[in-house]
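Typical record is below.
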Amino acid sequence: MVAAGNGHTEVIRELLKVGADIEAWDNEGWTPLMLAANRGQTEAIQVLLKAGADIEARDEYKLRSLTPLMAAAGKGHTEAIRLLLKAGADVNASNYVSKTALICATENGNTEAIRELLKAGADVSDDRALIRAAENGNTEAIRELLKAGADVNARENDGDTSLMRAAENGNTEAIRVLLKAGADIEARGDEGRFISEGWGSPGWTPLMHAAGNGRIKAIRELLNAGANIEARGSNGDGTALIVAAGNGYTEAIRVLLKAGADVDARHNGGKTALMKAAMEGQTEVIRELLKTGVGTETRDSVYGRTALMWATVNGQTKATKELLRAGANTEAKDNWNRTAFDLWYESGAKNHPDFHKIAELLKP
């Protein structure tokens, strides 16, 4: 096993002569051929194949269930890939999560390995290959996969497209390539799958993905390409500005506001960007939003709460102080006739050293 992994071909031959098991597993469940492929030991691969090693062997524990070809592809060992394909390895074999050698190669980001697999007939209909290339920002791989017929608007299991993943990871060049190939700039994630399985982001557009992850260059790229700055998630989750506010991306807020984002836009519960920032305790974002002159007395449509109330009910001490400094009204009441003072006492901030001090400031 050590000999295969280190490419010691003479040792391999001697061991095989004295009856060594060519399909023996190591502690990780790998056969000698799998280990040689994983490490790109081409001469060892040739010796093992000539001796009859199983080219489609899987690891013992099926934790990875990789074939030697997948193992080589995952590490980007192009010459090993060529050898295995020439020896008849199944280019479209998949493991227990339906991962093929092509997907392993795109995860690794080795474009030459991708080309070899595509040349051998690798199936590009599995959408994950293009999506992995997009999230890794591998533009050459994206071009190769698109040239081979990959669907630019195909979706991952969580409903995300390649453009969403490129935006989420801030891969601006990948965004350009995908848009040029016809990627839908206003596609939305799969809200139903998010709700039922807790995957992905609830119906976000690519711009929302970029904003929700603070990817400034990606935001600019998408806006320049015509992305709708006021688009909402498929479940009304809010605009790009609201998503960025909740996640605390101040620079993204600046870029979106400069591009004309509506500071008073609301999500499906009627919360504004200021309320969302207050809920999450994003004090820098609160300051940035207050610079626009946005009112602190706007209420959401479900609870009738102001930004100050949302800060207090969530125990956000810094946000509460920031809004009080901005003159937020402490006498306002929600739909249940409770003030920010009442909500502060209901919050989980009672152990905070400033709890009573802030309570005094909140008294109507």
Remarks:
- The radius of gyration is 28 Å.
